[in-house]
Design a protein that fits this description.
Elements: E1 2-5, E2 23-26, E3 43-46, H1 55-59, E4 66-69, H2 79-84, E5 88-90, H3 97-111, H4 114-122, E6 139-143, H5 147-158, E7 162-166, H6 172-177, E8 181-182, H7 186-192, E9 195-198, H8 212-216, E10 223-226, H9 235-243, E11 249-252, E12 272-274, H10 283-301
Parallel strand pairs: 1-2, 1-3, 3-4, 4-5, 6-7, 6-9, 7-8, 9-10, 10-11, 11-12
Helix pairs in contact: 3-5
C-alpha cells in the first residue's frame, strides 16, 4: 500500500513508529495544494488540521482509499465527501495534557515578559526591563469548561487565582464541583478576567464568538490566550485591539492560516506572544499518533479498520 505522510515538519514520523512492510513517503514541507504529490497515494497520514481534505481535494485523488488523521477529531476533513469517494477515515489517540501545559507556558510568558527578558539576556540588553504581573489574586476567565478548561482552571487555583468560567451550556453544578465561579455571560466573564483563556471546540455557534464587542469588554490590563482555534476569535478585531493597546497582550498558538504568512500583522505586534501551533506537539503525542497510524494501516489492509471516523464530533 502506497502511503504518504504529510507535513512532518520535524522529520520524526519514521522514527516514532515501525513502518516496515509499508511503502512510505514522508513530506516535510507544507504543500498548499498537495494533489499532484498524492496522485499515487492509496493512504495519506495527516497531522491534525495542517492540510484540509476538502471535497475538491478528495475528488482529485482517485487512488486514495485510506485517510488517517492524528486525534479523533478533524474539522478540516470533509467526511461526507470521503464516504462518497470510498475513502475510509481513521484517527488515533491523543493526550489532553499537552495543550493544557502550553496554555500555562503562554500565560506565564505573558505575565513575566519572558520573551522580552530572554531577548535582552541574549542580546546583551538591559538587565531587568519589565515588571511582572502577579497571578495570585488575579482573575482567570475560562471560555469553555470541558476537560481542557477544567484542567487549566485547576492549575490556576494552585496559583491562587480567582477562576471563573463560561460557556453556552455551562451549569453551576459543574463549576461548583471544581470550586470555580460561573459567569452570567461571555461579556461578564471578559469584564472580570485578568487572563481570559479559550477552550472551546470550533463549531457554527462558536465561530467568531469572541467578536469586537466581546474584546471591547476586556480590561486594558488583561491578556487573551487562545490555544483552541483561531476562528473562535474575530481576527481583525483582535489585531485592532492589540495594535491600539486596548488589551495588554495575547498568547496565541492557533491561526486562521497555518503556517502564518510572513507578512501577517500579528508577527509585528510586540504585545503578542505566539507559538506555531505547538499545543499537541510533544514526544508522547507524536509516538501515539504515528504508532497508531501504522496500526490503522495494517488493520485497514486486513479489512478491519480501527478508530474509524464516521461523522463530525
Amino acid at each position: 500500500m502506497r502511503c504518504v505522510v504529510l507535513d512532518d515538519y520535524q522529520g520524526v514520523a519514521l522514527s516514532n513508529a515501525d513502518w516496515s512492510g509499508l511503502d512510505v513517503t514522508v513530506l516535510r514541507e507544507h504543500l498548499d495544494d498537495p494533489a499532484e504529490a498524492l496522485q499515487e497515494a492509496e493512504c495519506v497520514v495527516i497531522m491534525r488540521e495542517r492540510t484540509p481534505f476538502t471535497a475538491e481535494l478528495l475528488a482529485r485523488l482517485p487512488k486514495l482509499r485510506l485517510l488517517i488523521t492524528s486525534g479523533m477529531r478533524n474539522a478540516s476533513i470533509d467526511l461526507q465527501a470521503a464516504r462518497e469517494h470510498g475513502v475510509t477515515v481513521c484517527g488515533t489517540g491523543s493526550a489532553k495534557t499537552p495543550p493544557t501545559e502550553l496554555t500555562w507556558a503562554l500565560i506565564l510568558g505573558l505575565a513575566r515578559h519572558l520573551a522580552v527578558e530572554n531577548a535582552n539576556f541574549h542580546n546583551k540588553g538591559p538587565w531587568q526591563s519589565t515588571v511582572g504581573v502577579d497571578l495570585a489574586g488575579a482573575a482567570l476567565g475560562l471560555v469553555g469548561f470541558g476537560h481542557l478548561g477544567k484542567a487549566v482552571g485547576r492549575v490556576g487555583k494552585a496559583f491562587g487565582m480567582d477562576v471563573v468560567a463560561w460557556s453556552q451550556n455551562l451549569t453551576e453544578d459543574r463549576t461548583e464541583a471544581e470550586g470555580v465561579r460561573k459567569a452570567s455571560s461571555l461579556r461578564d466573564l471578559l469584564e472580570q478576567s485578568d487572563f481570559a483563556s479559550i477552550h472551546l471546540v470550533l463549531s457554527d455557534r462558536t465561530r467568531g464568538l469572541v467578536d469586537a464587542a466581546a474584546l471591547a469588554a476586556m480590561k486594558p490590563s488583561a491578556f487573551l490566550i487562545n490555544t483552541s482555534r483561531a476562528a473562535i476569535v474575530d481576527q481583525k478585531a483582535l489585531v485592532e485591539v492589540l495594535r491600539d493597546n486596548r488589551i495588554a497582550g495575547a498568547g496565541l498558538d492557533v491561526f486562521e492560516t497555518e503556517p502564518l504568512p510572513l507578512n501577517d500583522e500579528l508577527r509585528t505586534l510586540p504585545n503578542v506572544l505566539a507559538t506555531p501551533h505547538l499545543g499537541y506537539v510533544t514526544e508522547t503525542n507524536y509516538r501515539t499518533y504515528f504508532q497508531e497510524a501504522v496500526e490503522d494501516i495494517h488493520a485497514f489492509i486486513q479489512g478491519t479498520p480501527l478508530r474509524e471516523l464516521t461523522h463530525a464530533k
